[in-house]
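A further point concerns the way the authors explain their paired sequence and structure data. Each protein is reduced to its one-letter sequence and a matching series of backbone shape codes. An entry of this sort, consisting of the sequence and the corresponding backbone structure tokens, reads as follows:
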Amino acid sequence: MLPFAPIVFLSLAQTQAPAFRADLDAGRYLKVLSDSEQRLRQDPNDAPAWAAKSQALSSFLRFGEARAAAERAVNLKPGLADALLARGLARAGEAIKQRDLGSLRGAMGAMDDLRAATEADPNLAPAWMSLGLAYELLPGLLGGSTRKALRCADRLRAIAPARGDLLQALILVEEDKWREAEAWFLKALAKAPQDPEVVGQWLDALDRRPAKRALGEAGKNARLLAEAQRLLPGVGSSARGIIAVSDAHLHGGQPEQAWKILQEHLGQVEAPSLLRLQLGKVAAVSGLHRPEGLAALEQVLREPLEGGSAGLPGAWWRKGQLLRDLGRKEEARKAAQEALKLDPRHRGARELTEDLDRG
């Protein structure tokens, strides 16, 4: 599997499509999809609308449809940076889902599109973020280069200072230079303490191997929990920020607090469906509140799910885990099958099916 997930989702969180910028920046992907489709009904040749629709579809993990929409945008307006970015993100997403040698072609195509997007609009911040991550995460044979990745961070810092610092930090984490990475994370947080992406990436990095090696398991957990508590007030109205804080408590050994934070903020965020999905995850991972977690997932599966998450395959998988743990194995098997219908290569659903087959 190619490590393209952060390339896709970090870029979706800061897209620059002018007519849709505010909603995409805020993660209102359902609204973007609806608005772009309305514009396309009025004018089927609206390239920016096709580009925005593509990015919304990528947030729902519908990468094939996203690629087709991006192709329409590129064909209508070949030099449109947002269209090139959208196609690059869709190609990257397809590479994630393929998880085989066929994904190499998609990886190279995504790199080409991301480079073209930065050339078409040097001020397109998410293109620099995506390109920098791609340079760092991909092997040299596919064009990877830490030097080029750091150059992207410099370019991004000139137009979006906190995001440039964030990219620098992410690159240094991949290089296993924790102390240097930590300094750049703190610079980004000082500039944008309420940015859920900066907060989320910092908390995620604190739970990764370089931090564990530098701080030890106990030290890592203590720092992770302290930072989650410190940063929670700044992201209290953001579903993605709340989820990042919840994950920090879950991974730091406080699953009950992870659950409590989600419950307390359900009525305060614009995308409660994402918090309900996280409730299901906390219940499945920790074993706490299984009936309530199952009820939350059932609501997620009945209603529109906002983009930028594990999506419907993830919801079905977590539901299957909970059903298994509640002793409802046939229902669990059906849930796993639903996940695999949506994503035949979903690792968690396949492992769940194998576990159920064993008995």
